[in-house]
Design brief:
The chain is an alpha/beta fold. The protein has a single domain, classed as Nucleoside Triphosphate Pyrophosphohydrolase. Helix content is 28%, strand content 29%. It contains five helices and eight strands, in the order αβββαββαβααββ. The strands form two sheets. A six-stranded mixed beta sheet has the order 3-1-5-4-7-8, with helices on both faces. The mean pLDDT is 93.
Length: 167
């Protein structure tokens, strides 16, 4: 294969969007959500992975957390990976990492990125479906399930768990 053939092959591959977020909680188990100004609904702190810079999903989640809420937090394990089909856009692969339990001091230190976010709040896990749109509610619930079970990350498609083969 020539260099030109390889470049044409790469250019012809399907496109996939990628994002990463952090799941933060308080001592009572409530989940930190942020309200973006560019779309409806609430989301986890996070955003697009800048793959052109060599950024990894984990690095993106940490960078986006620092940019969006002003906290630089070492992230814990991967909790969920979700393949989300789209209409009028390429599919999205979304990574969710454990951001841990934040202290009162950390919550007081939150500074929103005013160019993107309107507000933040803590939400009880059972109330997440009323705040998160589409497959995001299932993704966050699955990430919480992974935390509780302690048996590894969840593989999801459109927020729904992919069946695991029997051992």
């Amino acid at each position: 294969m020539t260099t030109n053939d390889y470049a044409a092959y790469i250019a012809g591959l399907p496109r996939v969007l990628a994002g990463a977020a952090a799941l933060f909680r308080d001592g009572e188990g409530r989940v930190l959500l942020v309200e973006p100004n560019y779309r409806e609904g609430w989301v986890l702190p996070g955003g697009t992975i800048e793959s052109d810079t060599g950024e990894t999903p984990r690095q993106a989640a940490r960078r986006e957390t620092l940019e969006e809420i002003g906290l630089d937090v070492q992230l814990g394990p991967l909790l969920a990976v979700d393949w989300v089909h789209g209409t009028g856009r390429p599919p999205i692969v979304a990574y969710v990492y454990d951001g841990g339990v934040l202290s009162g001091e950390q919550f007081r230190a939150i500074r929103l990125q005013e160019s993107e976010l309107i507000s933040w709040k803590l939400v009880e896990p059972e109330d997440l479906p009323t705040h998160l749109l589409g497959s995001l509610a299932f993704r966050v619930t699955s990430a919480l399930d992974a935390l509780t079970a302690g048996d590894g990350a969840r593989e999801l498609e459109n927020g729904r768990p992919v069946s695991r083969p029997a051992p």
